[in-house]
């Protein structure tokens, strides 16, 4: 009987404040969608780091005829200097750190350059002899690239030794900044949702102040009086949370899997499994925020 009375009060509150309930649903939906996107973006960055760091190579650029620096004082790297670098890569000192390596000569570098910049006018001015002959090295542990840099940088005929992870760090730092920005916006939206839920509960209680007074006179407990208001906030927030979870699944399916994956097949993206992990988090977060904000509003601002 008590449960039926509570549900009746909840239904009454929802009917009397339809516009405010819709507002709560929309604000919760938007704020939790931002939260879900921020979580997915963070997961995406971590997934891309694991994918690309394992593939990152160390490039040993040999001198060209136009290279400067002490190591390139003799002009283009000679066959003996190229062989000396290979000997170092195969030596007992460096071999344990190296998974595999291969050599790219002028013609191969020029062919790859033309493929990479196809349609770009710069290809008309670049010739094969201007491009470095390069040893591309995959390490067993990409974090130990300093060993190669220190061992090979001073060899005659070596223009530079570059760890590709340095380029990746710049990209990931930008993505991380975008992730933190999304988190900040989501936090502001959650604050707005909490304030709106609290306002809705206060207005709902004010519109039923006569009924609350009667319930108080007949001996109803504070918990019994407060429970319908808390449930109103939780129900509205849960509807918004379900919509947000659906939006996250739709974003992953239709934007990430159907658009980004075919367009960028050379990298790794989050999948539906990741979206389904985020969905329960949004539902739980929406329910908790609504319950606490409603509890605070009814306790702090209502004298029943």
Q: How would you describe this protein?
A:
The protein is α+β, with helices and mostly antiparallel strands. The protein has a 4-stranded antiparallel β-sheet. It is elongated and about 100 Å long. The chain is built from 9 helices and 4 strands. The longest helix has 43 residues.
Helices and strands, with pairings:
Layout: H1 2-16, H2 18-55, E1 57-62, H3 79-89, E2 98-104, H4 106-116, E3 134-139, H5 145-152, E4 158-163, H6 165-207, H7 209-217, H8 222-263, H9 272-301
Helix pairs in contact: 1-8, 2-6, 2-8, 2-9, 6-8, 6-9, 8-9
Helix content: 55-70%
The total strand number stands at 4
Distance between the termini: 22 Å
Strand and helix order: HHEHEHEHEHHHH
Backbone structural class: alpha+beta
Domain ABC3 transporter permease C-terminal: 185-294
Main location: membrane
Family: Belongs to the ABC-4 integral membrane protein family. FtsX subfamily.
Protein name: Cell division protein FtsX
In a nutshell, what does this entry contain?
It comes from Herbiconiux gentiana. Helices cover 68% and strands 8% of the residues.
Q: What are the salient characteristics of this protein?
A:
304 residues; alpha+beta; 9 helices; 68% helix; 8% strand; cell membrane; FtsX_actino; cell cycle
